[in-house]
Amino acid sequence: MLTGKFFTIVSQQQPDEKSVHAVIDWNAAHPIFGGHFPDQPVVPGVCMMQTIQELLCAAVGKELLVEKVSNMKFLNMIDPRQTPQVTIEIGWTPEEDAYKATAIIKHDATVFLKFQGRFK
Fold first, then answer.
1. What mean pLDDT comes out for the span 26-52?
2. What rounded mean pLDDT belongs to the chain?
């Protein structure tokens, strides 16, 4: 949905069978930034979550939706002009019919988002 339009995967690794690390580029020219916000673009939180969901789905090979968010912290805003590239690290534990996941979006020492939740 957002892959290839709102963001592009620069590199991706699976350090083990239960994690994926990706470096992505935000598309600062995407029309969403015209409304969020003109002259001061910020990556919307819902788009950060969708990015995590798409990367997780691709890694596990299943279509998943967020079922429950246990903890989500937006620690810093992402201006795609100032921080065009971020690293996303996702780890998961398979459960009966779902995946318990943690994720972090960061650039160097700056953390933008921390997430813990369940996808089904």
1. 94
2. 97
Residue indicated by tokens 């398979």: 94
Rounded CA-CA distance 80/72 in Å is 21
- pTM value surpassing 0.90: yes
Q: Could you say which DSSP state residue 31 is in?
A: T
Domain locations in the chain? 7-119
Query: How many helices and strands (H and E) does the chain possess?
Result: 2, 6
Q: Strand, helix or coil at 32?
A: helix
Domain 7-119 is in which class?
alpha beta
Q: How far apart are CA 87 and CA 68, in angstroms?
A: 23
CA atoms 32, 3, 62, 71: torsion sign? negative
37 falls in which pLDDT band (50, 70, 90)?
A: confident
